Amino acid sequence: MKISEVNKKYKNTWVLAEVLKQDKLNQLVDVKPIMASKNRYELYKRIPTLPKGTHIATIYTGEVKGAFLFYVPAKI
């Protein structure tokens, strides 16, 4: 699923996703949503249950005021 599709489908929500494709700058291009929640800690609880080696990202699809967010690649 393209990032633009994730943003449309899950408005103002935290999304835990498997990373399928990144560009040369490590920006997310395609992901497979695993779960979505208004509470990001629900996503954090799910991470330990994922298979080892899964390349994941947490994405917030709402507007962030007064803060800077960045993506850090992670494999579990």
How is the topology of this model organized?
Layout: H1 3-9, E1 14-22, E2 28-37, H2 40-46, E3 55-60, E4 74-75
Describe this structure in words.
- This protein has helices at about 5-10, 40-45, and strands at about 15-20, 30-35, 55-60, 75.
- About 20% of the residues lie in helices and about 35% in strands.
- The protein has about 80 residues and is α+β, with helices and mostly antiparallel strands.
- It is globular, with a radius of gyration of 12 Å.
- Strand 1 (about 15-20) and strand 2 (about 30-35) form a beta hairpin.
- The chain has a four-stranded antiparallel sheet with strand order 2-1-3-4.
- The protein has one domain.
Please count the helical segments.
Answer: 2
The largest beta-sheet arranges its strands as 2-1-3-4
Number of domains: 1
Strand portion: 35-45%
Low-confidence stretches: none
The whole-number mean of residue pLDDT values reads: 89
Radius of gyration: 12 Å
The structural class is: alpha+beta
What labels describe this entry?
single chain, 76 residues, alpha+beta, 18% helix, globular
Gist?
The protein is α+β, with helices and mostly antiparallel strands. It has two helices and four strands; from the N terminus they run αββαββ. Helices cover 18% and strands 36% of the residues.
